[in-house]
């Protein structure tokens, strides 16, 4: 049983309908109607030592990564991140570790003008659980379920560097390259800079945490559609091409931990959006099209169309 089957079987039935819940389980965040003109977005992520990070990593980096992966959920929903709570489980009280961790939290929260508003601490194996809350103008949150046949699929940046960092953790490579890859892994940059564009153009969106093929599949399943990708259009980090050659796209599709956004836009709105991106000095990449037939297909470099299994990171 994978993570999403577990959720569907045991917890989705508890998602009882209430008038203020616009959408709940099954998106990057829940969306609640609180008052006229404002929706509240809420999301929770847990990071566990030896699963999501190595215990020997610097506490500052662990804190930064914890904040960024949560902020990325807000970006995917076109929400402004505002508040966060922290539940921290520690094997022991280590003042030096906690000082570095708190410093990382402070620097990361300041980047987005966010504040820590509460939480909990307890003893046990090291884990970090954060709940993030953000806001959008009423009705402007972007879910996974709005993609339509004919929509163009875009990604917001190059893929695969964080997954390559993990793959090469114990491999000797030039220091500059190692630093570049570890920066992508430890300090992802959530695409908050895109939220206004998403509100104006996107029909569906998701952040790429588990891998492009797996996360695009979530959009397809939620929207009742399929997709066809163009392999040559998928933006891969240059170091993937150096170390993996023809296998570079495979890791870009399945590796995860990119925290770029995958989103869909009506074809007739794409020229206007791309012009706005150009004026804002932003790069986003059209990589395929939404189709009515279920499943994901990919046209490879040899112009052959193959079924693409939605493989990515799995928790179970």
Automatic annotation (TrEMBL):
Keyword Lyase attributed: no
EC id: 2.7.4.16
SUPFAM superfamilies found in the cross-reference section: PurM C-terminal domain-like (SSF56042), PurM N-terminal domain-like (SSF55326)
Binding site for ATP: 119-120, 144, 209
Reactions mediated catalytically: thiamine phosphate + ATP = thiamine diphosphate + ADP
Keyword Transferase on entry: yes
Sequence positions that bind substrate: 52, 257, 313
Domain spans labelled PurM-like N-terminal: 26-135
GO molecular function, one term: magnesium ion binding
Keyword vocabulary terms for this entry: ATP-binding, Kinase, Magnesium, Metal-binding, Nucleotide-binding, Thiamine biosynthesis, Transferase
Gene3D superfamilies referenced in this protein's UniProt entry, alphabetically: PurM-like C-terminal domain, PurM-like, N-terminal domain
The protein's enzyme class: transferase
Binding residues annotated for Mg(2+) 1, in chain numbering: 44-45, 120
Pathway: Cofactor biosynthesis; thiamine diphosphate biosynthesis; thiamine diphosphate from thiamine phosphate: step 1/1
Residues at which Mg(2+) 2 binds: 45, 73
Residues that hold Mg(2+) 5 according to the record: 210
Binding site for Mg(2+) 4: 28, 43, 73
Gene Ontology biological-process annotations: thiamine biosynthetic process; thiamine diphosphate biosynthetic process
Pfam families the record matches: AIRS (PF00586), AIRS_C (PF02769)
Binding site for Mg(2+) 3: 28, 73, 207
Family recorded in the similarity comment: Belongs to the thiamine-monophosphate kinase family.
Protein role: Catalyzes the ATP-dependent phosphorylation of thiamine-monophosphate (TMP) to form thiamine-pyrophosphate (TPP), the active form of vitamin B1.
Other comments on record: Reaction mechanism of ThiL seems to utilize a direct, inline transfer of the gamma-phosphate of ATP to TMP rather than a phosphorylated enzyme intermediate.
This protein's name: Thiamine-monophosphate kinase
Organism: Legionella sainthelensi
């Amino acid at each position: 049983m994978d993570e999403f089957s577990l959720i569907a079987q045991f917890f989705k039935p508890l998602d009882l309908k209430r008038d203020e819940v616009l959408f709940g389980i099954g998106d990057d965040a829940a969306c609640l109607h609180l008052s006229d003109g404002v929706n509240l977005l809420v999301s929770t992520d847990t990071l566990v030592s030896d699963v999501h990070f190595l215990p020997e990593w610097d506490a500052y980096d662990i804190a930064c990564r914890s904040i960024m992966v949560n902020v990325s959920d807000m970006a995917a929903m076109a929400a402004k991140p505002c508040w966060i709570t922290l539940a921290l489980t520690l094997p022991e009280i280590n003042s030096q570790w906690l000082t570095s961790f708190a410093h990382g939290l402070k620097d990361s929260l300041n980047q987005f003008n966010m504040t820590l508003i509460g939480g909990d601490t307890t003893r046990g194996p090291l884990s970090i659980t954060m709940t993030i809350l953000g806001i959008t103008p009423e009705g402007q949150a972007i879910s996974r379920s709005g993609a339509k046949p004919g929509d163009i699929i875009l990604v917001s940046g190059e893929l695969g560097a964080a997954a390559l960092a993990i793959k090469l953790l114990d491999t000797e490579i030039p220091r500059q390259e190692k630093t570049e890859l570890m920066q992508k892994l430890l300090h992802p940059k959530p695409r908050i800079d895109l939220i206004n564009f998403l509100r104006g153009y996107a029909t569906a969106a998701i952040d790429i945490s588990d891998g492009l093929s797996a996360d695009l599949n979530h959009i397809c399943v939620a929207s009742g559609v399929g997709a066809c990708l163009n392999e040559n259009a998928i933006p891969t980090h240059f170091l993937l091409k150096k170390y993996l050659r023809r296998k570079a796209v495979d890791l870009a599709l399945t590796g995860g931990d990119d925290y770029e956004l995958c989103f869909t836009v009506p074809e007739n709105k794409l020229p206007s959006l791309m012009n706005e991106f150009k004026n804002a000095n932003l790069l986003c990449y059209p990589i395929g099209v939404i189709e009515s037939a279920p499943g994901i297909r990919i046209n490879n470099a040899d112009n052959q169309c193959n079924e693409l299994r939605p493989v990515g990171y799995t928790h179970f």
